[in-house]
Amino acid sequence: MTIQFGLFYGFILIGYLLAKLSGKGKETNRYLNLILINILIPILFIYTLLTASPDVMTELPLIIAIAVLVHLLGPALMYLHLKRRDYDNSTKGVFYICVTFNNALFIPLPLVLMFIGSAGLPIVIIFSLTQMILLATLGSFMGAVYGGENGGYRKVTKDALTFPPFIAAIIAVILFLANFQLPDNIAYYFSFTGPVTTYLALIAVGLGIGVRFSLVEIRAALEVVGIRQFIIPIIVIPIIIFSGLSHLPASILILEALMPPAVLTVIYAKSFKLDSEKASTIVTVGTLLLLPIIPFLPFLLS
């Protein structure tokens, strides 16, 4: 476990130092994200779902229902919070998007691979697939309502629905339902995408922190992070525990509920001409506040 924690924080530190010392953090982060999003994660999605245990799929409806609940609680609580605040539409849009969509891949994926193994990946994929559907619908609606770009709704909906991991997950689900089996030689090579994706994703997290690190408007960031990473888990965790789910999906859903806002929220904010700098601060602060509690997560996932 000590080695695993060393690797986890070590690769994040590598990414952070690379961003700070090289002066090319944004460029490196962009290329690394292209490799992860367009190649490694789609392959991992297909490999994982086609080699998943059938037992995971028996709990699929309940897993999806809880994933939807985790996402919808955020905007509901934020609506109540904003009734007592006077913010402009650009800030409100950022708050709604950041509190709704958490980091469903880049942090949970390496954690699950390092401390559980590939058996936990189907739940991560199901959660991520649910999020992408909500991002393309609810997320685009939020951006269109509060943003300043005409036609942004259609563009971002199209971008979300053509997101490579989303397409890969849909293909994998179709192949899974058709009882398609990966040839052994292909499955063997695909199996290496797990560890490669794990460490590159951690470097990407570190690069993101290094590129976006700023304590400007930290008070506003804490308004979102407090709901996303504190109030929502307090509400959701008892529901998950008493839902009747088996231990593996329950523990991973609790892990997902603890995650900070997703980096994709910054991209959405830019696309709809919302306050993307505020979105970057929220994502960075949320990620930094999560890192100290990472050592306690294996006790949850064991």
Please, could you describe this protein's structure?
- The protein is mainly alpha-helical.
- The protein has a single domain (11-301), classed as Na+/H+ antiporter like fold, CATH 1.20.1530.20.
- 78% of the residues lie in helices and 0% in strands.
- The chain is built from 16 helices and no strands.
- The chain has helices at 2-22, 25-50, 54-58, 60-82, 89-100, 108-115, 121-146, 152-161, 164-177, 184-190, 193-212, 218-241, 247-257, 264-271, 276-290, 297-301.
- α1 (2-22) runs antiparallel to α2 (25-50), α4 (60-82) runs antiparallel to α5 (89-100) and α4 (60-82) runs parallel beside α7.
- The radius of gyration is 18 Å and the shape is globular.
Note the main attributes of this structure:
mainly alpha; 0% strand; Na+/H+ antiporter like fold; 78% helix; 302 residues
What is the strand and helix layout of this fold?
Layout: H1 2-22, H2 25-50, H3 54-58, H4 60-82, H5 89-100, H6 108-115, H7 121-146, H8 152-161, H9 164-177, H10 184-190, H11 193-212, H12 218-241, H13 247-257, H14 264-271, H15 276-290, H16 297-301
Helix pairs in contact: 1-2, 1-11, 2-9, 2-11, 4-5, 4-7, 4-12, 4-13, 5-7, 5-12, 5-14, 5-15, 6-11, 7-8, 7-9, 12-13, 12-15, 14-15
